[in-house]
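Workshop exercise sheet. Pairs work together: one partner reads the sequence aloud, the other fills in the structure field after running the prediction. Swap roles for the next sheet.
Pair: D.N. / O.F.
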Amino acid sequence: MAITPVAPIFVTEEFAQLHDELLQLLRGLAPADWHKPTVAGAWTVKDIAAHLLDSDIRRLAFQRDNLPPVPPDNPISSYQDLVGFLNQLNADWVKAMRRVSPPLLTEFLASTGPQVADLFRSLDPFGKALFGVAWAGEMESANWFDIAREYTEKWHHQQQIRDAVGAPSLYARKWLHPVLDAFLRGLPHTYREVPATDGVQIVFRVTGEAGGAWTLRREADAWQLYRGEETDAACVVAFDQDTAWRLLTKGLARAEAAARVTITGETALGQPLLGMLAVMA
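Structure field:
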């Protein structure tokens, strides 16, 4: 299979449809379901739903309504400073929302979700995004990538709720493939300090209905990402779609991830994947 350059990901309509799936899921929960634990640290199902509302409100306030973003208490001079600031914002919101009932929280989401979808439809996909995709190493990003990043957030948090309450997973290609495609755009940044001679290729093969193959190729002392794979890769990293999204969203410990990922060829070239994240952490 020949490799081709990666192309933009357009998920504006899928974003709106994914939100409809969330509302249907939340409206079907039993009262006890809202208090079930999830893999998202100490957050319950209700806490994750509150976080999803927070992301909608921030997006509408900052991007649509031009409200200046909340300034940090301390200067942000590193990636970890940014992560710490965002984690505190998230924690403050979730704590405050614990006084809001599940029905009211669902009503709020029913209002904000369509407004965010309309906002995304109004944007030039190739215009400058409000936020760069920092986990991919971008200080500035195009709108299409920012929207795709937001789609991955909405998908993986909804999937965490689904796991917690035993609801069917959204693993159909329509839903999950854009998530994996967006997540793997972080590979060049993850590998930025991994040395190799020009022409070396690493194949990442994700199995399952939503999977595919991506190739990192060393060119001019940098790593470039392509779709597809060729037969002369120095290393092949294979894992299934369930492993892929969990690994890249802090859902697997490194030892568990290593047991679920197969690395052949020059194994050292596959190891950085085990520490890769496509979320701010």
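Discussion prompt: The beta strands are 4-5, 201-207, 212-219, 222-227, 235-240, 262-265. What would you look at next?
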